[in-house]
Design brief:
Elements (H helix, E strand, L loop, with lengths): L2 H27 L14 E4 L2 E4 H4 E7 L2 E6 L5 H11 L5 E3 L4 E4 L5 H38 L4 H34 L2
Antiparallel strand pairs: 1-2, 3-4, 4-6, 5-6
Length: 187
């Protein structure tokens, strides 16, 4: 296979891996009944006028399966952190004791669990669309190479290789979604 074809396939594979990694990060943020400090990864706090990630201004840890504790490094950050949590609409009310903030995760109802599963499957669909888009772009690049003199056999082999890559990554998406659904729906 030519160097250009190899580059196209490697770039497509790297892009698909990035799409899977993005899905994994998004699935971690979807609540599954257990308190997980990563649930707050996308939360930004007003830190002296600059939006700053929560984990840059406080230590976030799981006290038990249903409780997160947030210990700010500066006491005057309690109010901005509390405000950010309320504005993020996470479905939890922060409990401020003057030193730390505690988040008590309420048990999930069946309806709420189904909502979270639906959200997870939405993320999965976005990832599948991204993977298919990567495949389409790679195949278009291969066809351009064919117009520039690449043999038909090499073109077919590259297209088959792209389809195999796509199928493998789509099945990874399905495995991640099945695991997340099982995690969310287990009581």
């Amino acid at each position: 296979m030519s160097d250009e074809l190899t580059l196209i396939v490697e770039y497509a594979q790297d892009s698909m891996i990035k799409a899977i990694n993005h899905l994994e990060n998004e699935l971690v943020r979807i609540r599954a009944g257990k308190a997980n400090p990563q649930m707050l990864d996308g939360l930004f706090v007003d830190y002296y006028g600059a939006p700053t990630a929560l984990n840059q201004v406080a230590n976030v840890s799981a006290m038990d399966a249903r409780t997160l504790t947030i210990q700010p490094w500066e006491k005057n950050m309690l109010q901005p952190i509390e405000r950010a949590i309320i504005n993020a609409n996470l479905g939890v009310n922060p409990q401020n004791d003057g030193n730390t903030i505690r988040l008590f995760m309420p048990p999930l109802t069946e309806e709420r669990r189904k909502e979270f599963v639906k959200r997870a499957f939405g993320e999965g669909e976005q990832t599948r669309v991204a993977i298919r888009s990567i495949r389409r772009e790679a195949i278009e690049q291969v066809k351009k190479l064919q117009k520039d003199g690449l043999s038909e056999d090499l073109t077919k082999d590259a297209e088959k290789q792209m389809q195999d890559l796509t199928d493998r990554h789509i099945s990874l998406v399905e495995k991640h979604l099945a695991a997340k659904e099982k995690e969310i729906m287990s009581v």
